[in-house]
Amino acid sequence: MPIRRTHTKSRLGCSQCRKRRVKCDEQTPQCSSCVQRGESCVYLRFPTKSTSITATKIAAPPVNSTSPSEAGTCQDSPAPSAIVQNDEEDALWSPDRVRELELLHHWCLRTSKDFTPDLVDLFQDYLVKVALKNPHLMNALLALASFHIACETNDPATSRDFTSTGMGYHTRAVAGLRAVLSSLSPETCDPVFASSTLIMVCVMISPFLPVGHSRTFNFTAEAILPLADILRGLGLVIETSQRKVQQGPLSGIFNVAWPSLPHSTVSPILEDLRKFNASKSDSATAPIFEHAIQALQKKILDSTAVFPWIALAGLEFIEHLRLQNTVAMAVFMVWGALMHMADDQWWARFSGKNLVNETSTILSAKDDDFAGIITWCRREVDLSERP
């Protein structure tokens, strides 16, 4: 009777094959599966002396049951407890676990430092400690770290990979935040406020990443409109426990110095918006757009962050923006340019530039009269003057 060969299961496959639970041919530097799928191939386990010995013992062919050497073979076989221990170790160092550690490492070394120097200690130390006790905040933190990597990389496959990862964490962060909002108290305001802030940033940048919202929205920039609701929610958190948040460890967020814009640079563009509003809007819509323009002008005059303007523009303005009204889109595009110019944050520059790029492309196809404003906005965000 032919000897039956024992199947050996390799634990040395690449992280992508292990994540998909498919057999890896373990070719280096990239396995065949990753080459075919165009994915980055990462090996997290390498053969060691003990691994080779264990594999040899497991694969040892069985001998005749009457042979005295059977006892020696059985004694050399790994005990069930050893197999369980190996499985537990594999679970501990699963691709998802390694990815989380990678993201937390990136947050501490890069993302936390790329907001503003005044907030490095807050984001690098305090926020991580609070996140360890609040899953919704940890998910928001890991989501933003994922998006940060996706924004920085020049490799499309890597950008898609980390965007997909970030979307998963972002979804869990939003669900977790909704669950705790029903029992908001002064003690939970810090993590809730921090989660809301990070989710707000995620909403700003995620529409412009490779895994976007093109199937859901008429134009990608529309996906950031829920930001208005998030900002209003932040206002409710502050109203509920204003003293606790503004006088606690998170107080530094309220004291960030935002760069001021020369009014002489921006004023002519705002006046152009008003002229278009007067010539292209009817008596019902003109006051709606004027309110949005005034709110944007106030942000500039007060030298405060520009991005919260979307929460002040009004629900009627947002509805006209969804309908792609040309005046509303022009105001929206100028907001994107001003974010890029004034807010001095990597995520504001990224989203502002992409917002201008997409909105100007749509607007230029709708109405040539806006060519001057389009040119100004694109020039301010370092794009070519015409789409």
SSE order and pairing:
Layout (H helix, E strand, L loop, with lengths): L14 H6 L11 H6 L11 H11 L9 H8 L3 H13 L2 H15 L10 H12 L3 H18 L3 H26 L7 H17 L21 H14 L1 H5 L16 H18 L5 H16 L7 H4 L2 H8 L3 H17 L3 H21 L4 H10 L7
Helix pairs in contact: 6-8, 7-8, 8-9, 8-10, 9-10, 10-11, 13-14, 13-17, 14-17, 16-17, 17-18, 17-19, 18-19
Count, helices:
19
Helix content: 55-70%
Q: How many beta-strand segments? A: 0
Shape: globular
N-to-C SSE string, H for helix and E for strand:
HHHHHHHHHHHHHHHHHHH
Radius of gyration: 28 Å
Largest sheet: none
- Give the low-pLDDT segments: 46-75
On the 0 to 100 scale, the average pLDDT is 80
Distance between the termini: 75 Å
Relative strand content: under 5%
How many structural domains? 3
Structural class: mainly alpha
Domain Zn(2)-C6 fungal-type: 13-43
Keywords: Nucleus
GO molecular function, one term: zinc ion binding
InterPro entries: Fun_TF, Sterol_Uptake_Regulator, Zn2-C6_fun-type_DNA-bd_sf, Zn2Cys6_DnaBD
